[in-house]
């Protein structure tokens, strides 16, 4: 049973558009929600993360929206660029961070 | 910058072989992890180690074992490789407790024939 469900599996966006990736979780004990970005041939790298005490976090063109009551969080990429083309993973972790539960991944293709 | 190095980028092995995947980190991190990445399944935790000689099972430990004799090195062992262990294997490390961030290696694509 997957602890974190991610959608869509793949996404095509035009340059300058908004990319939106959604994740949902069941365990209300999760305390930390990161997004990782993975380019082909590379390992995932931390992009942005949020804790459940805030509803939104923004870093440059990347924003996490968090809805605690709905147990959902999403990644918004504003003004999407071809260089953003990558696979994105959401994740959730308990307070001790020893276990991260990853979503299934979204392959984003930003067309020029 | 933290560097997590996995010894092989691609590996091809035969069914029944014993396989060693090696991972080295250069930042004195206490915690190290082995994940398996499969299309449509995301990353799944196989084992993690919170200190030298200390290990804990993840979500899919069956068919795998690990070794951590030195702080910087974490090895994943496939005792008798099977075709369903064909996958991308990712090693990660992080600072204990105070830092949630995982640092990943570039991965080893293992094919078991």
Explained architecture:
The complex is a heterodimer of chains A (112) and B (113). Chain A is mainly beta. Chain A contains no helices and eleven strands. Chain A has strands at 4-7, 10-14, 19-25, 33-38, 45-50, 56-59, 62-67, 72-77, 86-93, 100-102, 106-111. In chain A, the strands form two sheets. In chain A, strands 2, 4, 5, 9, 10 and 11 form a six-stranded mixed β-sheet that branches. In chain A, a hairpin with a 2-residue loop joins strand 6 and strand 7. The model of chain A has no long low-confidence stretch (mean pLDDT 94). Chain B has 113 residues and is an all-beta fold. Helices cover 0% and strands 57% of the residues of chain B. In chain B, strands 2, 4, 5, 6, 9, 10 and 11 form a seven-stranded mixed β-sheet that branches. Chain B has a four-stranded antiparallel β-sheet with strand order 1-3-8-7, with no helix packed on it. In chain B, a hairpin with an 8-residue loop joins strand 9 and strand 10. Chain A binds chain B through residues 2, 4, 6, 9, 32, 34, 36, 41-46, 49, 89, 91, 93, 96-100, 102-105, and chain B through 4, 31, 35, 39-45, 48, 50, 56, 58-59, 90, 92, 94, 97, 100-102, 104-107.
